[in-house]
Amino acid sequence: MSDNPQRYLVGIDVGGTFTDILCLDIQNQSLLSAKTPSLPGKQWEGVLNALSELGISAGDIRAFVHGTTIATNALLERKGAKTAMVTTEGFRDTLEIGRTRRLIGGLFDIKFVRPKPLVDRPLRIEVPERTAANGEILNEIAGYDFEPLAELLKDEEVEAVAIGFVNSYANNKTERDASAALGRLLDDVPICFSTDVVAEQGEFHRFSTCVLNAYLTPVVIKYLETLSEELNDKGVKAPVNIMGSNGGAMTLPQAAKFAAGTFLSGPVGGAGGAVRICEMANVDDCITFDMGGTSTDVALIYQRTPRISHDNQIDAYPLQVPQLDIHTIGAGGGSIAWVQDDGTLEVGPQSAGALPGPACYGRGGEEPTISDANLILGRLPTERTLSGGLRLDKAASEAAFISLSKKLGDGDIVQLADGVLRIAVAKMAGAVREVSVHRGFDPRDFALLGFGGAGPMHVFLVAEELAVPQVIVPRYPGHLSALGQLLADQRLDAVRAWGGKLSAVDPAELRGPTSEMKTVASKTLLDAGFESERQKHTFTVDMRYVGQSYTLGVSLDENATSWDSVRDAFARRHTETFGHADANNDAEIVNIRLVSLGVVGKPTLAFNGGDGIDVIVEERKVWFGDDWTDCPIYNRDRMETGFSFVGPGIIEEAGGTSIVPPGWRVTVLEAGSLDCANPLVDV
Questions:
Q1: Three-class SS state of 547
Q2: What's the rounded Cα separation, in Å, for the pair 93 and 523?
Q3: What CA–CA distance (Å, rounded) separates 335 from 346?
Q4: Most buried among 80, 162, 190, 651, using CB within 10 Å?
Q5: Confidence category of residue 2, pLDDT binned at 50, 70, 90
Q6: Are 270 and 297 in contact (CB under 8 A)?
Q7: CA-CA distance, 166 to 206, in Å (whole number)?
Q8: Could you give the 3-state DSSP secondary structure of residue 491?
Q9: How far is residue 555's CA from residue 482's CA, in Å, rounded to a whole number?
Q10: Closest CA to 144 of 165, 159, 158
């Protein structure tokens, strides 16, 4: 029996290459970490291995939060459930018609093949229902005989059903009736209706989101049940939460019901952890740079708040749910360097993954990767093991690059490795521009926060490419996503289609819908164990000028007595985004949105500094720019608060290696992060 029961908060992030676990001891605020290889197709085994590697008692865990890529993998690999769709007569082809434009592929791809809908046409079934745009039910569904339809779905061995009716956002009675009728006839087959997932206008996006949710639900449920059983067998009795794409945690029942809300389950943890690091480092605005073994995820955090997007797309399918505005590219430590048909060098998006991994891992991989390039350039050690006990094989990396060099006509593999990194850095800089410049922000006004297993190795080069003045590298950079997960609040998002022209709507009419929305959210959080004093509710409205088809979110005071503040806020937001405002045009509200948080206490997070003794482990030749340079290798565990040096330098720690180019000044902050100043930028 433990003397200190339930003393640990655990966050686990499953990546494409490694599974990271971070554990906070709430008694002394210390952190424990571990890293184990991810197991493709068996994510729960990687989770259990990571938990075992940590070496803590399962009975001492107070809370367990998990980020997973199970939904993303199921969609990308087309391994979701066999799904049927029930819809209004005349609208079975809405999924296929869409917006009559390409959502992926590009205009100039002459080999473009349109992706098939997730529901085959014979399984898109029409029923005689119709609801008008004002919510009036024109054709009732209550008397419809669903038994033949249910028998058809059983004969087709359908595993999930999506229900989407036209104009149901205005009145979802027919969707609810159809769902109840089919639920009685189809036993354990998951059924979801569109307004239960997203109650917004726009049939195509709403139908697509509902179908995605239905398609993924059986896969996610199976994974969650397996994970729960395995954790229970290991003695973990603490509640298990799943990270949601909106940056908050969800209970297992919530995640099972809202599978489409878990697409960014892993990456959003990094954004949450970055907010906490910014608070401790006294930084307001940053761009996260999360580079792992398979991909790089970037997100913009403005005034310590990650940007949220409501109009998203996963692969070729629209997804109209709130999620963090994260941009992902296929550039990670395991990204493969290869020769294109025209004889030019390319990097990614193919990845060596966890197995066999880069050639230098010694697990049978033979393809040259970004990790192999770094090893050839002296940026990674060969005489010491990395996190997880991994010892790198330089000879294998050289053999892989010699093979690549021959395909390019022979040449110096050092120059080739440098070229691979330059291509990767250009791609990653483009991703940063995507979330900043393309959103109306200048990246030079932000710090770049590098984390993930490979983030600190490349973040300085990306900062030089973009003239970003400051780089922050947190303590335990390879585990920041796991940190964000164990700090995550529970979050609920609700939306209601409501509004009209500001000149025609009385602010007093807000009271009804906002009160109803808050009441439902409050009860849900209360049932999850969050008393009213631990709840936080924030309203916004989606607004546009009359005649526009796109909206901008604006904060809303639910007790407002006039629209003046809302109108002014919308004008400012429109100017920030598009460079102008239209004082002569009336504005209108389209949706009311509510974000409800069950607030979790934020621990202090004590990052203990070293004693400053024997900080430099060794010196070795490292390639920077166009030549070899004598470079000191620092042990971060021995770096005390206030310790400072000027690059070049390499900083090694569990879960991450920071490659500091010449001229950069690095200072250890009291909070444990590295504050790094770009010598190429005048501040």
A1: coil
A2: 38
A3: 10
A4: 162
A5: very low
A6: yes
A7: 10
A8: strand
A9: 30
A10: 165
> Is residue 336 classed as helix, strand or coil in its secondary structure?
strand
pLDDT greater than 50 at residue 1: no
Closest-CA residue to 333 (of 351, 314, 309): 351
Distance CA 84, CA 160 (A): 6
Quote the percentage of the chain above a pLDDT of 70.
Answer: 96
Q: Which pTM value belongs to this model?
A: 0.85
- Short-list 182, 267, 113, 251, CA closest to 530: 251
Residue 578: name the closest of 540, 547, 555, 545 by CA: 545
What distance lies between CA 669 and its chain's CA centroid?
27
> Residue 341 — very low, low, confident or very high, per pLDDT cuts 50/70/90?
confident
Report the relative pairing of strands 8-14 and 587-598 from DSSP bridges: unpaired
Q: What are residue 437's phi and psi, to 5 degrees?
A: -55, -45
Least-confidence region, from 89-98, 284-293, 308-317, 592-601? 308-317
| Interhelix angle 173-185/147-155, nearest 10 degrees | 60
pLDDT digits (tens, 9 = 90+) for 401-416: 999 999 998 889 999 9
* CA 513 – CA 53 distance, rounded (Å): 49
Give bridge partners of residue 596 from the DSSP assignment: 492, 537
Residue 241 bridge partners (DSSP): 65, 251
The proportion of the chain whose per-residue pLDDT surpasses 90, expressed as a percent, equals: 52
Confidence of residue 683 (pLDDT cuts 50, 70, 90): low
Q: What is the maximal distance between C-alpha atoms in the chain?
A: 81
The runs of H, that is alpha helices, within 529-593 are: 564-578
Q: CB neighbours of 220 closer than 8 A, spacing ≥ 6?
A: 70, 71, 74, 255, 256, 259, 262
Q: Is 614 exposed, middle or buried (0-12, 13-18, 19+ CB in 10 A)?
A: exposed
CA end-to-end span of the chain, whole Å?
Answer: 56
**pLDDT at res. 265:** 83
Both structure tokens of 423: 């291509």
**C-alpha radius of gyration, the chain, whole number:** 26
* Residue ranges of E strands in 15-159: 18-25, 30-37, 61-67, 83-88, 124-127, 130-131, 137-139
Strand ranges inside 107-200, DSSP E: 124-127, 130-131, 137-139, 160-164, 191-193
Alpha-helical (H) ranges within 190-300 are 194-197, 203-233, 252-257, 267-281
> How many Å apart are CA 96 and CA 304, to the nearest integer?
40
445-483 pLDDT, tens per residue? 999 999 988 899 999 999 999 999 999 999 889 888 888
Exposed, middle or buried: residue 99 (CB in 10 Å: 0-12, 13-18, 19+)?
exposed
Asked whether the beta carbons of 175 and 197 are under 8 A apart, the reply is: no
Between residues 485 and 520, the one the model is more confident about: 520
Q: Is the pLDDT of residue 426 over 50?
A: yes
